[in-house]
């Protein structure tokens, strides 16, 4: 299993298109934060972290969209499905490998944005309360900048695994990589696009805001919303691989 996961990671992360897009996103991430007073810089860090999610989504679904369509187009799935436990191991390896790969990509982008901001304030003010930042104006939370950064990293990792399983499922039910890319992108991107037009109480329920947990704090999500977000992620990571397995092993 470990060997299969390593092979999936290499297959995913060493693609030329992924490497180029990933490198370009990191270079841009190093230039996003405006110079200013400490509170303004940290506010900009969280503002730009959320604003950068379309780029993160683009790379994620570039990674995920062709995961199973390659097997279908090469007819490898027929051979895999005849081997003892081959199909189970492959689905598990793809799920774990994709989750790790998307986590690495997304966290590297978030940390790059963090470091750009930290560099501009000489790593000072990490204990500053979020309520002192314009981006979180009016909140009641006692969280500080450092705590929010850590929480955001954790939720990005969890959501990366969720979106990975979603992307793999979409790939498993389609012979076209473009179909899974478009639908996966819409699921992640629509809440971002529609945010100005829909009430926050609707957008706050979406996996995108569960991923970018700074949005939950900004809009003061209650405990119930946070629990629902956790259930969505856990249920998705448990149910979607089963659906993927069923789709991949279906007679064609």
Relevant terms:
252 residues; mainly alpha; 13 helices; 73% helix
Shape: globular
Average pLDDT reading:
86
Helicity level = over 70%
Number of E-state strands: 0
Radius of gyration: 19 Å
Element string (H = helix, E = strand)? HHHHHHHHHHHHH
Distance between the termini: 26 Å
Low-confidence stretches: none
Our count of helices gives 13
Which structural class do the helices and strands define?
Answer: mainly alpha
The share of residues in extended strands comes to under 5%
The largest pleated sheet is described as: none
Structure in words:
With 252 residues, the chain is an all-alpha fold. Helices cover 73% and strands 0% of the residues. α2 runs antiparallel to α4 (53-64), α4 (53-64) runs antiparallel to α9 (177-194) and α7 (86-120) runs antiparallel to α8 (145-172). The protein is globular and about 55 Å long. The model has no long low-confidence stretch (mean pLDDT 86).
Give a short summary of the structure.
By secondary structure, the protein is mainly alpha-helical.
Task: Please outline the helices and strands.
Layout: H1 2-13, H2 16-29, H3 38-51, H4 53-64, H5 69-73, H6 76-80, H7 86-120, H8 145-172, H9 177-194, H10 200-203, H11 207-211, H12 214-218, H13 223-248
Helix pairs in contact: 1-7, 2-4, 2-7, 3-7, 4-7, 4-9, 7-8, 7-13, 8-9, 8-13
């Amino acid at each position: 299993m470990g060997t299969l996961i390593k092979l999936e990671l290499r297959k995913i992360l060493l693609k030329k298109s992924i490497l180029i897009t990933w490198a370009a996103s990191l270079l841009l991430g190093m230039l996003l934060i405006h110079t200013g007073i400490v509170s303004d810089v940290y506010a900009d860090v969280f503002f730009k972290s959320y604003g950068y999610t379309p780029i993160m989504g683009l790379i994620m679904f570039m990674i995920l969209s062709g995961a199973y369509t390659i097997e279908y187009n090469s007819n490898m799935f027929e051979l895999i499905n005849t081997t003892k436990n081959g199909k189970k191991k492959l689905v598990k390896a793809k799920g774990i490998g994709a989750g790790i790969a998307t986590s690495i990509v997304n966290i590297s982008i978030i940390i790059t944005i963090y470091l750009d901001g930290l560099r501009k304030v000489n790593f000072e003010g990490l204990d500053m309360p979020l309520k002192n930042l314009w981006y979180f104006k009016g909140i009641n939370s006692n969280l500080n900048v450092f705590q929010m950064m850590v929480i955001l990293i954790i939720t990005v990792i969890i959501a990366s695994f969720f979106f990975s399983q979603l992307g793999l499922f979409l790939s498993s039910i389609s012979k076209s990589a473009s179909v899974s890319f478009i639908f996966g992108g819409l699921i992640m991107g629509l809440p971002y696009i529609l945010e100005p037009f829909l009430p926050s109480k609707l957008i706050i329920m979406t996996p995108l805001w569960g991923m970018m947990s700074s949005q939950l704090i900004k809009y003061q999500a209650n405990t119930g919303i946070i629990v629902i977000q956790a259930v969505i992620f856990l249920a998705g990571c448990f149910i979607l691989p089963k659906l993927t397995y069923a789709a991949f092993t279906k007679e064609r």
